[in-house]
Amino acid sequence: MPKRFAARHDLGLTPAEFRALARLDRPEKIQAFVDAIPANYEPDGDTVLSVREVLRQRRAHCIEGAMLAAAALWIRGERPLLLDFEAVRDSDHVVAVFRRHGRWGAISKTNHVTLRWRDPVYRSLRELAMSYFHEYANRRGEKTLRTYSRTVDLRGVDPKLWVTNGENCWEVVERLQATRHYRLLARRAEGDLRTRDRLERRANALRDHRPPARVRRRWAARRAAAKRAAAKRAAARARRRAR
């Protein structure tokens, strides 16, 4: 039977690592701790950092922050639960969920003003997931959230795979992907969705943590390459019209 409280030896953490999480005795403190960790822009490729690696490298994106939050909850005697959101034409998102007085809340690592913390006021996981629907949008302003999963209890996953793993924690990703997901809206309703307006898109451009310089240089190079490609296409069209 899974242990209710995770001790240091259960997780395999060092005393310093365990103390960093053990002092987070409320979900609000866990959220503040996760918010303070710089965003992981993955400059060297896709990552799924373990709890130890997030603490060591001081960077995290959504699933990495969610696993850290889940570990902190488990230390306090709460189930370490992850909830997965699947999107179309967009990135998926993962949060750690908790309950208070029979209501669900969420701890969320994000670098934007959207997809953040949720107070524990939602009667069901579906209700919690729907609270993210309006703001879950891609760069074109399309609302992209489509499904949410059953919760995944990380007590059923070896801590060596998600707490102290020195490599990427792809096993957790696979577990989430294999978990049953539920649709949030019928396909026929997708045509009725309004794109987010200009002000909403501008607000979503705000970032909590700036990207590193080398990431900014890479983005600038991509934008320049895209402009050159667009200019070449425009020149080719002009030549064809001139014939």
Overview of the molecule:
The protein has 243 residues and is of the alpha+beta class. It has two domains: 8-211, C8orf32 fold; 212-243. The protein contains ten helices and seven strands. Strands 1, 2, 3, 4, 5, 6 and 7 form a seven-stranded antiparallel sheet that branches. A hairpin with a 2-residue loop joins strand 2 (93-100) and strand 3 (103-107). Helix 3 (27-36) packs antiparallel against helix 5. It is globular and about 75 Å long. The mean pLDDT is 95.
Spell out the blueprint of helices and strands.
Elements: H1 8-11, H2 15-22, H3 27-36, H4 51-57, H5 62-75, E1 81-87, E2 93-100, E3 103-107, E4 118-122, H6 125-130, E5 145-149, E6 152-153, H7 159-162, H8 170-178, E7 181-183, H9 198-204, H10 213-242
Antiparallel strand pairs: 1-2, 1-5, 1-6, 2-3, 3-4, 5-7
Helix pairs in contact: 3-5
Provide a quick synopsis of the model.
The protein is α+β, with helices and mostly antiparallel strands.
**How much of the sequence is in beta strands?**
5-15%
The description of the largest β-sheet is: 7 strands, antiparallel
Q: CATH class of the largest domain, anyone?
A: Alpha Beta
What's the CATH topology name of the largest domain? C8orf32 fold
Summed up, the domain count is 2
CATH architecture of the largest domain: Roll
Shape: globular
| Count of extended strands | 7
Helix content: 40-55%
Instruction: Supply Rg.
Output: 20 Å
Mean pLDDT: 95
N-to-C SSE string, H for helix and E for strand: HHHHHEEEEHEEHHEHH
Low-confidence stretches: none
